[in-house]
Specification:
Blueprint lengths: L18 H10 L4 E11 L2 E5 L4 E5 L2 H5 L9 E7 L3 E7 L5 E5 L7 E6 L3 E7 L6 H13 L3 E7 L7 H11 L4 E4 L8 H5 L7 E5 L6 H8 L25 E4 L5 E4 L12 H7 L1 H9 L14 H7 L5 H45 L10
Parallel strand pairs: 8-9, 8-11, 9-10, 11-13
Antiparallel strand pairs: 1-2, 1-4, 2-3, 4-5, 6-7, 12-13
The protein binds guanosine-5'-diphosphate, magnesium ion and zinc ion.
């Protein structure tokens, strides 16, 4: 039993390493390449990499994170031996899928929560009032990742209204599998297990306290221990998840446990939005007006469907909100790009001017 990922040393094949990745390494490897593997954990400046029978710490430079391609948990990477930093992340293989949110903060940047995943479990606890807007928002990034969302309503043992809850979630999640689950009674744990075959990778998404880590403990048959009982006297012995960790399960499959994520900003997720609100996206696509806001325009397909009572009012409202969020982000990104371009043009111009007018600077003598 372990809460230390470094004690797990799965082989490369069971981590999802395949022949395509072999040829990718053949193309990317350089003299300094010393290893390959899958990132199990990212912390500030470092990654834990499962390299097949071993787990090593590799530096990942912050310069790379500034460009939005920071390595993430789930990435397949090469490890290089860097003169200054020692073992470091070299190249990251193209991601098949990536769960991405907008990084918290003012600057519009993506943050990859998990990559190369097959499913995203969008989780919410039944012991609290359902938050349908939160589920919809999380579904947008889950669909947009390219993986398949599944909704888990946890702690079904604590409530009697699970069936009603499922019915109300069904109305806002067309085409998504929805399961009421409990690690106490075991409800639907077998259904959950059926998602973990071979090297399939599943990311867990949801607030803190809803039972993500407890589910990992359950699925690992006691091999990992990511949560602890609160000791009454001192609260010590309690684990809360602070890193995004990739955990290979002994019975097959791989799970990525995440810390509770409160803020799920969208990142350029127009496709995810359309998948989450298909009934509205279809009408919007049929609307005959180009650049329509689908708000009040007479003759708009969305507006008329709404007046005919064909769309749930609150769904439409939320779709508009999320769409505005994405449009504002597009505008902000365009603005950033324009300003960066004019800065670099101005820079190039002043360098040219400098070459013409400035006297050659006296070289500073080295001591
Ligand atoms: N009743 C009940 N409690 C659960 C269940 N799953 C988790 N819990 C409890 O919920 C609390 C938070 O669980 P944890 O796994 O740490 O949540 P996380 O923050 O999402 O990882 C712990 O006290 C768990 O014992 C469940 O299925 N039923
Ligand atoms: Mg946890
Ligand atoms: Zn319209």
């Amino acid at each position: 039993m372990t809460d230390d990922l470094r004690l797990l040393t799965p082989d490369l094949a069971s981590l999802g390493w395949d022949a395509d990745l072999d040829s990718w390494v053949d193309e990317e490897a350089s003299d300094s390449t010393i290893d390959r593997g899958r990132i199990a954990r990212t912390t500030r400046g470092f990654c834990l990499v499962f390299t097949g029978g071993d787990a090593i710490m590799a530096a990942s430079s912050s310069v790379r994170s500034a460009t939005g391609v920071a390595p993430s948990t789930g990435d397949f990477v090469t490890v290089i031996d860097d003169e200054e930093d020692g073992p470091s992340i070299g190249r990251t293989a193209p991601r098949k899928t990536a769960l991405i949110r907008r990084a918290p903060g003012r600057v519009p940047e993506p943050q990859v929560l998990a990559s190369n995943i097959d499913d995203v479990f969008v989780m919410q606890g039944l012991d609290r009032p359902l938050n349908l807007r939160r589920i919809e928002r999380q579904l947008v990034i889950a669909w947009d990742s390219g993986a398949k969302p599944v909704i888990l309503l946890t702690k079904s043992d604590e409530v009697t209204h699970a069936a009603e809850a499922i019915a109300s979630v069904q109305r806002i999640a067309p085409g998504v599998e929805i399961l009421a689950t409990s690690t106490v009674t075991g409800e639907n744990i077998d259904r959950i297990r059926s998602h973990f075959t071979g090297t399939r990778t599943v990311a867990l998404l949801g607030l803190s306290g809803i039972g993500k880590s407890t589910l990992v403990n359950e699925l690992s048959d006691g091999v990992v221990q990511r949560t602890g009982e609160v000791r009454a006297a001192d609260r010590r012995g309690r684990h809360t998840t602070v890193t995004r960790d990739l955990i290979p399960l002994p019975s097959g499959g791989i799970v990525i446990d995440t810390p509770g994520i409160r803020e799920v900003g969208l990142w350029q997720a127009h496709q995810g939005l359309a998948r989450t609100f298909p009934e509205i996206a279809e009408l919007a696509a049929e609307c005959r007006f180009a650049d329509c806001d689908h708000q009040a325009e007479p003759g708009c397909r969305v507006v008329s469907a709404r007046m005919d009572g064909l769309i749930l009012e609150r769904r439409l409202e939320h779709w508009h909100d999320l769409r505005s969020e994405l449009q504002a982000q597009d505008a902000q990104l365009e603005d950033f790009a324009r300003r960066a371009e004019s800065r670099s043009r101005a820079g190039a111009q002043s360098r040219r001017d400098g070459e013409r007018t400035k006297k050659p600077r006296k070289r500073r003598t080295k001591r």
